[in-house]
Each structure stands twice: as C-alpha cells, then as structure tokens.
Amino acid sequence: MSLNRLTIADARDRLRKGEITAVELTDACLAAIEDAGALNAFVHNTADIARQQAAAADARLQAGDAPAMCGIPLGIKDLFCTKGVPTQAASRILQGFLPEYESTATQNLFDAGAVMLGKLNMDEFAMGSTNETSVYGPAVNPWRLGEQQLTPGGSSGGSAAAVAADLCLAATGTDTGGSIRQPAAFTGTVGLKPTYGRVSRWGIVAFASSLDQAGPMTKTVRDAAIMLGAMASVDPRDSTSADRPVPDYEAALTGDIRGKKIGIPREYRVDGMPAEIEALWQQGIAMLRDAGAEIVDISLPHTQYALPTYYVIGPAEASSNLARYDGVRYGHRARLGAGDGINEMYENTRAEGFGAEVQRRVMIGTYVLSAGFYDAYYNRARKVRALIKRDFDEAFAAGIDTILTPATPSAAFPLGTMHAVDPVQMYLNDVFTVTVNLAGLPALALPAGLDSQGLPLGLQLIGRPWDEGGLLNHAAVLERAAGFVAKPERWW
Amino acid sequence: MSISETEARKVAQLARIAVADEALPALASELSHMLQFMAQLSEVDVTGVEPMTGVEKMRLKRREDVVTDGNMAEAVLKNAPDAREGFFAVPKVVE
Predict the structure, then answer these.
(1) Has residue B55 got a pLDDT over 90?
(2) Class at the top of the CATH hierarchy for domain A3-256+465-482
(3) Which end of chain B is more exposed for a tag (fewer CB within 10 A), N or C?
C-alpha cells in the first residue's frame, strides 16, 4: 500500500517503530498531490516547507521525542493564516495576502510535529455548501457518478476531497453551519466539529465569530481523536477559548457504550427526505442498540427555525467581520478613476473583490443590523437561538448522552446543479447541521453506507458540550459496526 | 416584507459595495426572498427569552491593561496595497 493511504494512527505507529520515515511519507503525499490536479483540492503547494518539516520530524522521532502527530502530512484549509504562505480564504479580495503570523490551531499542529503539504480549496470565506463560490474554481469530489463530476460539499470541500483521495493523511477544516460535517458526509470521510471554544479561532479568517469552530477531517474516528488532541488548546489570544484542559481523546475510545442513552429527534425526519437516508438512520439506530445503548425518542421542537435563525445571525456577523476588507490594510484594492474618493475606493474594491454569495450575505447582514430592523430580525433570531439551545439542554438534562441524526438530506450532487436554484433552496443543505453551531455543541459526521448509486452517505452524532471523548467513543462503535471501507475508484 | 430598489441601493451603500443601477431590481428581489424566508421567525413565541450572546455562560477573559506587543510597523504594513513612509496611504479624505 502506498504510504499516502495510511491513517494517522497507522503512520504514527510505523514512524515510531522506524519502519517508515516522515520524509518518505511526505514524498508519497506530494506525489499523490502532483497527480491529482483534476481534483483542484490543493490550491497552494508548500512542498519545500513540507520536506523541511518532515526532516525535522524524523530527527524528533529518532530522538524519541515524538508526539502522536509528529511527521503526519496534513492539508490546511485556506482559511487558516499560515505565516508567509498564501492565505486568501478562496477570495479574490485576499489575493497576494501573506500572513505575518501563524494561526494557533496550525501552530499547535506544527509544534506537535505535523507537516503542511499545502493550502486547501474551500468556498469563499467559508460561505457555501458546494465549493463553487471559490475564486480558484470548485474542488471536485473523488467520488463520481459515471462521468459526471460531483461537488465535494462545502465549505471545507478541498479538505474533504484531499482526505478522501488520500492526498494527505488528514486535513484541517472549519465549521460555521456544517462546513466540516457536510463535506465529510459527501466524501465518505470523518469530520468533527468540536464544542465552541475548544479550538482557538485566533488566526482563522473570521466568518461568523459566534458560530465558527475549527476541527479535524480524517479517514477514521481514531484519527479525529488524535488530531483534535493536537489542535485544541487554551489560548489567551482567543477570548472565547475555554479554560479547560485538553483530555486524551484517544484514551476515551473504549468501545463500550452499554447503557448510554441515544436520542433520536423526531423533528429531523424532514419532508422529502430520501428513503435511503431514512433507512441509513434506522440502520445506525439498530447498530447502537446492538452495542448495548438505549434508544430514546426525543423532541427538539425549535429545529424548524434553525435555518432562518442561522441565516440572520451568520450574515449579521459576517457583515461586521468582513468590514475589514476595505482595500487599505491588505489584499485587493480597486484601481481608482479620476476624481474617485475613499468611498469609491471602498465600494469598488469590495464589488470587485467579493464574489456574489459573499456580497449577498454581507448585504443581508447589513440589512438585519440596520436601524429599524435590528429588533425585528437580529434580536429575534438571537432569542430563537436561545430556544434552540434550550431544546438541547433539556434533552441532555433528561439523561441523553448522544444524539443520532442523518448528516445531510442527500448524497453528493453534480457540480453546477445548485446554480439553477435560489439561495434559500441551497441553504436547505445545512438543515441537519446548523442547529449544532447555534447551540455550540460538538458533532461528528462519519460514513455509514453507500446509496443505490454507490455514493457515500453519512450519519451525524451530536455530543454533550465538552464531551468530545464520549462523542468519539460512540462514533467509533458506529464506525466499527457500519464497517465502511469503500474508496472512490481512481479516475483523476 | 419586500425590499424596494431604493432600499436595496441604501443597503448596498451601507455595506460599501458598488452595485450598478441595472443590477438593483435583481438584488431587491433576492433580498426580499431571503427576508421572506426569515419571516418564519415571527411565528415563535419569544416572550421573556433573553437574546443569546454566547454558547457558554462565561465572563469574557480579562487581562492587565498593559502593552503586550508592538514595534512591528513593518510587519503591519507589509500586505498593504499602498504604504508610504510608515503609513497606510488612501485617497484624499478631507477636501
């Protein structure tokens, strides 16, 4: 087996035994990336940095000072600031931006010895569910329908495509409304969104600050546990970073979930949901029951209001965060005409630099925050958000350990098909995932089966706040029971 | 709730995004459609509910009010489209 196909856990064990070197592992990934231009997953390659980091990792391994992530080659979503390496959030407005600093999450990974292969494609400013809002053009799903190219999902579509195609052992992602979990489900990979505040947001280009959270995208649940342990930290530079020690998540994978209570929320049975998704959900329920868990029907009554709430709060925060792109401090500045003043500079810079979806969200956010509408939209949405969170609080207070739902309302669909529908229709992709961001909970998507067309389908597990360990343990049980081993047939 | 072309123009101005006159009708209709979607929120009884400000009840961290870094003007200006003599340069603001 070529080395790029290894999991983090296997690679770690073989690196520590001296059976392989980090340089060999990195070279295998760089060669795979070289051959995978058709996937458009990697948009900035950092082969020189990767080889240097791999050599340093080998030295650490030889010295016996090797954390779990030491020598593990990763892809980094373009949203993470990486010092001296292009970081443009897949936007034209940040073209040429070379950060003078490193995000805390990537710094933590590098301190643990991880290797950066390059930057990964995504939707512009993480706004999108198909990767099609990217200035680089869309990343392509390694899974296909015949000759038809599919979306890898979004916004972390490049991360998901790269992991599914074995271009890297794992990747970083970020999740504001489902941007880690939906692409994981579309590509047959594992994606974990941690509890809000678990991974520092410092140095990650901000979209919606009360919803954004970074996490690992991996091939297995164990790998997600290992990588989260390295990404997470208590960070004084992020005022919302939680003052909680980072536990050993891998040690939480006991495989024993006997007596645990699994909540099945009836509101997640949505109109028009394909029978295959419902069947997959039932299979997941049966697997957890067979493992000794107790299945409990629960109600999360405000679920139906999660999408409109999200599409008020997300754009409101985005309009505020994206005000910084004004053509003054970094990135693109429009060419000024004769007599143009500073307002024309701002307006033309932002019209040229932001794509259509980003402009749409900034304007809707501006509207809901404007005088006269603030109470009717923004404040009301914040109140409904409190009710959505209360639904979860009450379920957990009643003894529920983990909640099981489908990850997405469909399998991956062809690229180009969402252009024809209106934005609201596109937002329905996030129906099962946004509630989690609004409530700040940890959640994980994992592959659980193939649909009749041979495409991967995912299930989502939602955990108690700060119980990533318990969540990962449930996921590992489900992963073993589902026995998902399918890989996309190589065409790229 | 629907947004007129005049309101759409005002929103674009507030957001500092140039929108051509001929693009205003489409923008107004798109924004109206999204607001209709959000109007569902008016069905929810939010009497006595406090607006949520954060997912965990925690007080924002505080630190001593002291200088923690600085003296990095070069790094701060490095990515500027137009920087001169240690400053960001912009078109004339005051007539």
Answers:
(1) no
(2) alpha beta
(3) C
Helix axes A275-290, A468-482, angle to 10 degrees: 110
Sign of CA dihedral B27, B33, B37, B41: positive
> CA torsion, points A87, A31, A446, A159, in degrees to nearest 10?
10
Contact criterion met (CB < 8 Å) for A387 and B49: yes
Q: How confident is the model at residue B56 (pLDDT cuts 50, 70, 90)?
A: confident
Strand intervals (E) in A109-176: 115-120, 144-145, 148-149, 170-175
pLDDT in tens, A195-216: 999 999 999 999 999 999 999 9
CA separation for the pair A278, A457 (Å, rounded): 11
Question: Would the ipTM clear 0.85, i.e. be above it?
Answer: yes
The mean of the pLDDT values for chain A is 96
Tokens of B61: 């961290």
pLDDT band at residue B95 under the 50/70/90 scheme: low
Q: Which residues from B are below 8 Å from A347, CB to CB?
A: 13, 16-18
Structure tokens at A169: 């052992």
Per-domain boundaries in chain B: 5-42
Residue A332 near chain B (CB below 8 Å): yes
Asked if the model's pLDDT at residue A12 lies above 80, the reply is yes
Look up residue B37 and give its two tokens: 């979607």
Place of tokens 């609004």: A438
Q: What is the pLDDT of residues A148-190, one digit of tens each?
A: 999 999 999 999 999 999 999 999 999 999 999 999 999 999 9
pLDDT of residue A289: 98
> Are the CB atoms for A131 and A151 separated by under 8 Å?
yes
Q: For chain A, give every domain's residue range.
A: 3-256+465-482, 304-381
A327 min Cα distance to partner chain B (Å): 7
Helix and strand element counts for chain A (H, E): 15, 13
Question: Would residue A197 be called left, alpha or beta, if left means φ above 0 and alpha means ψ between -120 and 50 degrees?
Answer: left
Structural tokens at position A482? 């589902």
CA A110 to the chain's CA centroid:
19
Full strand arrangement of the beta sheet holding A456-463: A42-45, A115-120, A73-77, A170-175, A213-218, A190-193, A443-450, A456-463, A402-406, A261-265, A294-298
Q: Is the pLDDT at B2 greater than 90, yes or no?
A: no
Chain B residues in contact with A340 (beta carbon < 8 A) = 91
A186/A412 Cα distance (integer angstroms): 5
